[in-house]
Amino acid sequence: MKKIIHLLPNAHIDPVWLWDRSEGLNEGIRTCRAMVKLLEEFPGMVFNRGEAAIYAHVREFDPELFARIRELIEQERWEIVGGNWVQTDHNMPVTEVLFRQYREGQRYFREQFGRMAVTAWAPDSFGHAAGIPEILAANGFRHFSFMRPQRLELPDDLFRWIGNGGSGLLCCRLLSYTAERESAAGLDRLAAREEGRSRRNIGVGFGLGDHGGGTSRGQIEGALAWASAHPEFEVRFSTFRQFFAALEAEIAAGLELPEVRGELNCCLRGCYASLPRFKAHYRRTEAALLRAERIGETVAALLDCPPPELGREWRMLLFNTFHDILPGTSIERAVEQQHDQLGAVADGALEAETAMLNRLAARIDMPVPASSAKHWPEATPMLVFNPLPRPFRGVIEVEACLDYRPLYRFSREDPIVELRDADGSELPVQEIKEEHNAMKHCVWRKRVAVPVELPPTGWKLLTVAARQEPKPYPLPPGPRAECSGEYEIRNRFWRISGRPGERCAVLTAAEGSVLPLSFALYRDRFGSWGGMSEEPESFHLQELLEEWELRESRIVETGPLRAGIWLRFDGAASHLELTLRLEADSPVIRAELRAFCRDRACRLKLRLPMAGRIICDVPGAEVERGIEGQFPAVGWLKLFLPGGTAFGFAVDGAFSYDNENGFFTCGIAKRTLYAGDEIGGTLRYPELPVAGGEVKLRFLLSSDAGTIRQRAEELRMPPRVLCCWPHKGTLPAEGTLLAVEPDAVRILALSREKEAFHITLQNCSGQPVEARLSLLGRTGNIALAPWKIVQVRL
Question: Model-level pTM?
Answer without folding.
Answer: 0.97
